[in-house]
Amino acid sequence: MRVLLSGYYGFGNLGDEALLEVIVDRIGRRFPGVEVEVLSQTPGATQAAFGVAATPRWEWRRVREAIARADVVVSGGGGLLQNATSTRSLVYYTAVLREAIAAKRKAMIFAQSIGPLDVWGRFLVRRFCRGVARATVRDERSRELLHALLPKTEIERTADPVFLYDAADEAIDLSAEGLGPESGRYAVVSVRKASGARDVVPLLRRAVDRLSERHGIRVAFLPLGGSPDAEISTDVIRLCKSAPVLLPACPLARAAAAIRGAHVVLGMRLHALILAARYAVPFLALAYDPKVAALCEDLRYPLAPLWKADGPHLADTDVDDLVDALVERRDELGAHLRARVDVVRASAERNFDVLGELLRE
Predict the structure, then answer these.
(1) Residue 52: alpha-carbon gap to chain centroid
(2) Is 2-157 CATH 3.40.50.10710?
(3) CA-based nearest residue to 209, from 180, 248, 238, 231
(4) Residue of 69, 49, 22, 57 lying closest to 271 (CA atoms)
(5) Percent over 70 (pLDDT), the chain
(6) Which among 58, 193, 84 has a CA at the least distance from the CA of 145?
(7) CA 335 to chain centre
(8) CATH number belonging to domain 171-343
(9) CA–CA gap between residue 286 and residue 309 (Å, rounded)
(10) Helix/strand/coil (H/E/C) assignment for every residue in 56-95
(11) Do 2-157 and 171-343 have matching folds?
């Protein structure tokens, strides 16, 4: 049997590459003999990295051929069905599902966050995704929205597959990045560009300087999304009174190891926060998107976000108080994450249970 994966793969975004790594690994473990094919921006790199067949995602003739070869077409994981970032991308992902349904292939929305969707976006999902066999979503808000658009599709709330990421449990020497055992406590910051996030740069500058000057914690910026993340990280670094560093681009395993070894994390990228939770590293979230706020809710995380797109602007003293709480309550917050993440990991496995049910039908 053959599974075709459609997602934001092959673009060098380490969060999405972590998703792909976990999905391919779990399918291999749980469904021996099932072949995996991926629609990728860089199919040669995807094939070499993951040992799967890969097809150029924008060559529509070859995409149709890949769909025809598949027994199940999987859309996800990630935040694909939204048009806050781009309506063009939403048209693409829904068109893949529509083609699969028209070709009478089983289609599944897999471990996604749904939305934000405007009127046009809701129309696209309702019209193009009608006939999807099953769906799993990462939060309750997404379940409710997708149910309103696809009332006949069976939808389950699960969790992000990256909670199952295990590869970074191996020992990795980070001395070259200045994060070896001799370097002392450090914080990892993962920031990204986002619309309406003008307050993030000065707010992060305040938080980074507080970590350094009040708590003696070195700060390293980790650009999970490549050069755009490095650019906004540099904007913050230039404003800081302290001396944070920008880590070089690195493979997923090294990035995960850097997060695992951190004293604390400040995270805007969803998968930086998921990896922090996976390794029980206390964090402060910057909720640029509802999926980040939903993650904090699912984890029942005790600390409020450092920044929220639809929230009030925090005063300097509020930023200081949150950073102080993060450091001073580190042991308590780590224990909370360790207790909660086992439940969430079980929910993440459920995505593959549902895929297995489709494969067996």
Answers:
(1) 21
(2) no
(3) 238
(4) 22
(5) 96
(6) 84
(7) 23
(8) 3.40.50.2000
(9) 8
(10) ECCCHHHHHHHHHHCCEEEEEEECCCCCCCCHHHHHHHHH
(11) yes
Mind listing the pLDDT tens digit for each residue in 78-123? 999 999 888 999 999 999 999 999 999 999 999 999 999 999 999 9
Query: Tokens for 332?
Result: 């308590």
Q: Which two tokens stand for residue 175?
A: 């001395």
- pLDDT averages per 10-residue partition of the chain, 361 residues: 97 94 96 97 97 97 98 96 92 98 98 95 97 96 97 97 79 69 86 85 96 95 94 96 91 90 96 96 95 93 93 91 98 97 94 97 86
Mean pLDDT of the chain: 94
Two tokens at 55? 């097809």
361: amino acid identity, one letter: E
For the chain, domain boundaries? 2-157, 171-343
Tokens 């053959």 locate to: 2
Q: What's the CA dihedral at 353, 354, 355, 360 to 10 degrees?
A: 90
CA 256, 311, 88: angle at the middle one, nearest 5?
A: 65
DSSP 8-state code for residue 34: -
User: Which stretch of DSSP H or E encloses residue 97?
Assistant: helix 87-102
What tokens does 203 get? 């707010």
Residue 266, SS3 per DSSP: strand
- Residue 308: beta bridge partners? 287
Amino acid at 278: R
